[in-house]
């Protein structure tokens, strides 16, 4: 009934093993998830990350979802991780989310990543700045 309509979902992600962050979001996903089935048909996606660890919000005891805390939105194409990058994706995700090693194999898990095309930084009540992907 909602085919073709965008909706959000929570997926485990990692941008690299601890002390080796790449800025590229990697995901461990299953085709049995409607979000993933949709992304395999139309790979355009956005990912918004709140300023959970920033000094301002923590210092002032402000909820990370409060408009005064920054949000980073990455937009791009979700793609299946190519074979030559699978080992890195595995290290990236499993090092930060070790519980996934125990997930049922029958779900046909695989790795995806976002090829980032646009970055927006929203800080304070709605100010949005475009950031060059190279940065």
UniProtKB/TrEMBL annotation:
<dbReference type="GO" id="GO:0012505">
    <property type="term" value="C:endomembrane system"/>
</dbReference>
<comment type="similarity">
    <text>Belongs to the CREG family.</text>
</comment>
<protein>
    <submittedName>
        <fullName>CREG2 protein</fullName>
    </submittedName>
</protein>
<dbReference type="Pfam" id="PF13883">
    <property type="entry name" value="CREG_beta-barrel"/>
</dbReference>
<keyword id="KW-0732">Signal</keyword>
<feature type="domain" description="CREG-like beta-barrel">
    <location>
        <begin position="2"/>
        <end position="135"/>
    </location>
</feature>
<dbReference type="InterPro" id="IPR012349">
    <property type="entry name" value="Split_barrel_FMN-bd"/>
</dbReference>
<keyword id="KW-0325">Glycoprotein</keyword>
<dbReference type="InterPro" id="IPR055343">
    <property type="entry name" value="CREG_beta-barrel"/>
</dbReference>
<dbReference type="GO" id="GO:0005737">
    <property type="term" value="C:cytoplasm"/>
</dbReference>
<keyword id="KW-0964">Secreted</keyword>
<dbReference type="GO" id="GO:0005615">
    <property type="term" value="C:extracellular space"/>
</dbReference>
């Amino acid at each position: 009934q909602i085919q073709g309509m965008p909706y959000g979902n929570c997926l485990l992600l990692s941008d690299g093993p601890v002390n080796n962050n790449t800025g590229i979001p990697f995901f461990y996903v299953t085709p049995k998830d409607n979000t993933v089935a949709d992304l395999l048909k139309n790979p355009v996606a956005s990912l918004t990350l709140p300023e959970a660890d920033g000094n301002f919000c923590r210092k002032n005891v402000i909820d990370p979802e409060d408009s005064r805390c920054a949000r980073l939105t990455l937009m791009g194409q979700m793609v299946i991780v190519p074979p030559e990058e699978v080992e890195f994706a595995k290290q990236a995700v499993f090092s930060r989310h070790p519980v996934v090693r125990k997930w049922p194999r029958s779900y046909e898990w695989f790795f995806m990543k976002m090829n980032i095309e646009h970055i927006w930084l929203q800080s304070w009540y709605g100010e949005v700045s475009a950031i060059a992907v190279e940065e």
